[in-house]
Design brief:
Strand content: under 5%
Number of helices: 13
Shape: globular
Oligomer: single chain
Number of strands: 0
Largest sheet: none
Radius of gyration: 19 Å
C-alpha cells in the first residue's frame, strides 16, 4: 500500500507541476458554476433547494475532463521510455496501475470538494434541502468518475500517443455515457433492458435522485475493475513482448 500511495502522490504532484490540475479545476468550477447558477438553476425563482442542475452539468464536464487528464498516464511514459524504468523497480504492475488510478481519483475528489460552497449556498437560498440526496449525487459523480478514469488509464496503456488515448477513451466512454441509453430507447423487451442496464446515465440518474441501489454501485465497480484488469493485462503483455 505504501508503494501505491507513493506513486499516487507523485502523479498528483505531476498534475499540479504541469498546470493540468489548475486548468482542470478552473474549467470545471467555471463551467459548473456558470450553468448551475445562471443558465439552468431555478433556485432564485422557485426557492427550491436542489443541486441536480450541478450534478447534470458535472456529469458532462467530467466526461470530457477525465480522458484529458488520464491520456498521459501511460502514453507519455511509454513515449519517453520512463515506463520501463518504473516497472523495473521493486513495484508490481498492479501497484503502478492502482497508484496512477488513485491519483486521478484524488484530483477529482479535490474538484468536487471545491464545489461544496454550492451545497452550502443552496441550504441558505432554498427550503427543504434533502442532504441525503445531495450526498448521493456526489457519490454518483465519484463512482462515475472512477469508472471513466479506469477506462482512460486503460486506453493510455494501449498507445504511446496521448491524442490517440484521449480519443479512444472518448469513443468507449460515449458508448456507456450516451449511446447505450439511446439504443435502449429504440428497442423493446430483453434487448432494451440489456442496453438500459449498460447505460451510465441510467445508474447515475437513479443515485442523483437519492436512491442507492446495490445494482448501481455494482455497475460502476464492475466497469472500474474491468478496465483496471485490462490495463494490468496490457502492461503484462508489454513485458512479454
Amino acid at each position: 500500500m505504501d508503494k501505491i500511495w507513493i506513486i499516487a502522490k507523485r502523479e498528483l504532484k505531476t498534475f499540479f507541476d504541469s498546470q493540468i490540475a489548475y486548468i482542470m479545476l478552473t474549467l470545471f468550477l467555471g463551467l459548473t458554476g456558470f450553468f448551475t447558477w445562471i443558465m439552468i438553476s431555478d433556485v432564485f425563482s422557485s426557492g427550491q433547494a436542489s443541486l441536480i442542475p450541478f450534478f447534470n452539468v458535472a456529469y458532462w464536464s467530467l466526461f470530457f475532463f477525465i480522458p484529458a487528464i488520464t491520456m498521459k498516464m501511460f502514453a507519455e511514459e511509454k513515449r519517453s521510455g520512463t515506463l520501463e524504468l518504473l516497472l523495473t523497480k521493486a513495484v508490481s504492475d498492479w501497484q503502478v496501475v492502482l497508484g496512477k488510478f488513485l491519483s486521478v481519483l484524488m484530483l477529482i475528489a479535490i474538484a468536487l470538494s471545491l464545489s461544496i460552497p454550492y451545497y452550502i449556498s443552496i441550504t441558505y437560498l432554498g427550503d427543504g434541502v434533502d442532504h441525503g440526496t445531495i450526498w448521493c449525487g456526489y457519490l454518483a459523480l465519484m463512482l462515475m468518475s472512477a469508472a471513466y478514469a479506469a477506462i482512460g488509464i486503460w486506453t493510455s496503456s494501449l498507445s504511446n500517443n496521448q491524442i490517440t488515448a484521449f480519443l479512444l477513451a472518448l469513443v468507449i466512454g460515449i458508448l456507456f455515457h450516451l449511446m447505450f441509453g439511446m439504443v435502449a430507447g429504440e428497442l423493446s423487451g430483453l434487448p432494451s433492458d440489456v442496453f438500459y442496464q449498460l447505460s451510465t446515465y441510467n445508474h447515475f440518474s437513479s443515485m442523483v435522485r437519492g436512491v442507492i441501489d446495490t445494482r448501481d454501485i455494482a455497475y460502476f465497480v464492475a466497469l472500474c475493475l474491468g478496465a483496471l484488469v485490462l490495463t494490468e493485462a496490457a502492461l503484462t503483455k508489454r513485458h512479454e513482448a
